[in-house]
């Protein structure tokens, strides 16, 4: 409950009649009375009735509160028990309850309240006569016990939703986006309430959710689908209208959803109007909207209208400079034309005409290759060969990664539909254009890694999984002492044990550096402690059947440090046996 609303209620209730204020409170409770955080409004209502000493109404308010989980449920139950202990039972009963008591029939549930009126619960409607010897204390105990049972059931449900409610950090609307954990919590909370099967609780929670998540299309779509599945078409239409006209009206996803929803419900004019709104105002030139609109017209038997949509969109995109949509529009139009009419020649003519209007690009050529796989023979392999060769030429536009990816896609195509000579020609061209560059790139990365990593790190990589000779030597002589006192510079030098050489970073000793580098290269790819993960190049979703043939490997970067203390090994990189501390830490 927002603070301005509370201030409004307080102002209006302090300046108007009792009956009018009663209706005002009831109107507010219709919307938020069952919310988990509705206690501020209930507090105001209790304060108002207490001020007017309406004890029966106050008891009814407490009964209504105890029926639903609430953040302050314990406080309300304790307040109710204080009220019941401080006032006579005759003042707490409503007129209906007093009349039933006087006639000798008391409902076992003692009446449950909805919208300010007391009515017995269906499971507790068995009336029982008042025993002749019952006292007011016994009647009061029974009166409180019924409310306590409501409190226990609400408390049990509260324990189920407490985790969800606690995770809601921002129940109000704000333009700043919510974090991922809060969004997931709302989805999980909605899943739980939907499984419970209480329709009123489902609607209330969706309305609460859409206060904080008003800018998220996914929740509006979920709300509409839930209401549609529940048979509440009016609520679904109301939620969709609010989403498309107010809250997320600038997002094309909700309008595309609205077109499908309206088409499924028989509102074809409404679906067409929603598409036109997307084409003209929301997202002009949106490829997804054009494709879905054309598919809808095809389903309705308006094939010429579907073709016209593509042609109008292509004409509009031609007038734009460097249109990114135009190549894919041609590809989709040719594919749609062939799949719907079966005219392969017309489909090829569309693509041939497109080459005069668009610049060659990886997505467009991928679409051509994929489209050629579904066309009947003979396939135009030589024609595709010329286009691919033109795109991957060294002096053509486009990134090296795109060229290599397209060459790999074409190799996969040829392996299915080409002959031996065409495959050999494509493989030779691929190896000539891309393998040398990739080898040099990997070599440069490898040199950079060797330069940046210390000798200790390199040896740890090379000999991970097996103890080094230096470690074995130190294990044989655990009590070895430092032979060199403080006057180390004046003593004749001898080579230190192998473990000491491993522990020291001596990148400036030529012979040692060369041996270490050679050892690292000899074990490259098999003894690395850190696994080498190939970097996959993202591909279009429609052409996932063509994986990259030659994945590029990346290697973890390491920092260079002069002292061994600064060299830190991850658990995966540490050798199997611990290396003892060096004897020469004071001199290096």
Care to describe what's here?
The protein starts with a helix and ends in a 35-residue tail after the last strand. The protein is 62% helix and 3% strand. It is elongated. Helix 9 packs antiparallel against helix 10 and helix 17 packs antiparallel against helix 18. It is mainly alpha-helical. The strands form three sheets. Strands 1-4 form a two-stranded antiparallel ribbon. A two-stranded antiparallel ribbon has the order 2-3. It has 26 helices and six strands. The C terminus is likely disordered.
What can be said about this structure in brief?
By secondary structure, the protein is mainly alpha-helical. The protein has helices at 3-14, 18-32, 39-51, 55-65, 73-86, 89-92, 95-102, 136-167, 180-196, 199-212, 217-229, 233-247, 252-264, 268-282, 287-299, 303-318, 326-341, 344-355, 362-374, 381-392, 400-417, 420-452, 455-462, 469-476, 498-503, 510-522; strands at 105-107, 112-114, 117-119, 127-129, 534-535, 552-553. A two-stranded antiparallel sheet has the order 1-4. Strands 2-3 form a two-stranded antiparallel sheet. It has a two-stranded antiparallel sheet with strand order 5-6.
């Amino acid at each position: 409950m927002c603070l301005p609303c509370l201030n409004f209620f307080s102002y209006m209730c302090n300046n108007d009649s009792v009956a009018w204020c009663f209706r005002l409170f009831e109107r507010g409770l219709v919307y938020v009375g069952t919310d988990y955080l509705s206690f501020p409004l209930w507090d105001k209502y209790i304060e108002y009735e207490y001020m007017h000493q309406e004890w029966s109404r106050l008891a009814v308010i407490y009964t209504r509160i105890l029926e639903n989980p609430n953040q302050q449920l314990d406080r309300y139950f304790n307040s109710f028990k204080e009220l019941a202990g401080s006032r006579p039972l005759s003042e707490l009963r409503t007129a209906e309850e007093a009349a039933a008591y006087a006639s000798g029939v008391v409902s076992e549930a003692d009446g449950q309240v909805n919208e300010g009126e007391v009515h017995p619960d269906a499971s507790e409607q068995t009336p029982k006569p008042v025993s002749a010897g019952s006292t007011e204390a016994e009647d009061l105990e029974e009166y409180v016990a019924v409310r306590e049972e409501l409190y226990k059931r609400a408390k049990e449900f509260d324990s189920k939703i407490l985790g969800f409610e606690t995770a809601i950090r921002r129940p109000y609307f704000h333009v700043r986006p919510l974090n991922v954990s809060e969004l997931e919590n709302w989805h999980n909370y909605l899943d739980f309430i939907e499984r419970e099967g209480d329709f009123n609780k489902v609607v209330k929670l969706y309305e609460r959710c859409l206060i904080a998540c008003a800018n998220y299309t996914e929740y509006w779509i979920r709300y509409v689908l839930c209401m549609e599945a529940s048979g509440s078409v009016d609520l679904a239409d109301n939620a969709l209208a609010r989403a498309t006209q107010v809250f997320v009206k600038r997002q094309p996803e909700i309008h595309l959803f609205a077109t499908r929803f309206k088409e499924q419900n028989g509102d074809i004019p409404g679906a067409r109007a929603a598409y036109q709104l997307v084409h003209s105002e929301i997202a002009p030139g949106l490829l997804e909207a054009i494709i879905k609109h054309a598919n809808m017209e095809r389903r309705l038997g308006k094939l010429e209208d579907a073709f016209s949509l593509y042609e109008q969109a292509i004409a509009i995109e031609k007038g734009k400079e460097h249109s990114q949509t135009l190549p894919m529009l041609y590809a989709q139009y040719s594919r749609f034309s062939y799949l719907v009419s079966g005219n392969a020649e017309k489909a090829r003519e569309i693509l041939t005409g497109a080459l005069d209007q668009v610049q060659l690009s990886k997505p467009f050529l991928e679409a051509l290759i994929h489209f050629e796989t579904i066309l009947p023979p003979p396939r135009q392999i030589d024609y595709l060969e010329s286009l691919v060769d033109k795109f991957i030429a060294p002096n053509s536009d486009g990134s090296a990664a795109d060229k290599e990816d397209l060459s790999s896609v074409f190799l996969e195509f040829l392996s299915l539909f080409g002959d031996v000579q065409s495959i050999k020609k494509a493989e030779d061209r691929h190896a000539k254009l891309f393998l040398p560059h990739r080898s040099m790139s990997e070599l440069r990365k490898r040199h950079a890694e060797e330069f940046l990593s210390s000798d200790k790190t390199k040896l740890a990589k090379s000999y991970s999984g097996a103890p080094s000779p230096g470690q074995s030597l130190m294990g044989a002589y655990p009590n070895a002492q430092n032979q060199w006192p403080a006057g180390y510079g004046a003593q004749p030098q001898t080579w230190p044990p192998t473990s000491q050489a491993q522990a020291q970073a001596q990148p400036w000793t030529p012979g040692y550096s060369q041996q270490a580098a050679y050892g690292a290269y000899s074990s490259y790819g098999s003894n690395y402690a850190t696994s080498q993960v190939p970097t996959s190049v993202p591909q279009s979703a429609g052409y996932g059947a063509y994986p990259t043939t030659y994945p590029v490997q990346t290697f973890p970067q390491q920092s260079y440090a002069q002292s061994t203390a600064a060299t830190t090994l991850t658990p995966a990189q540490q050798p199997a046996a611990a290396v003892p501390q060096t004897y020469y830490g004071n001199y290096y």
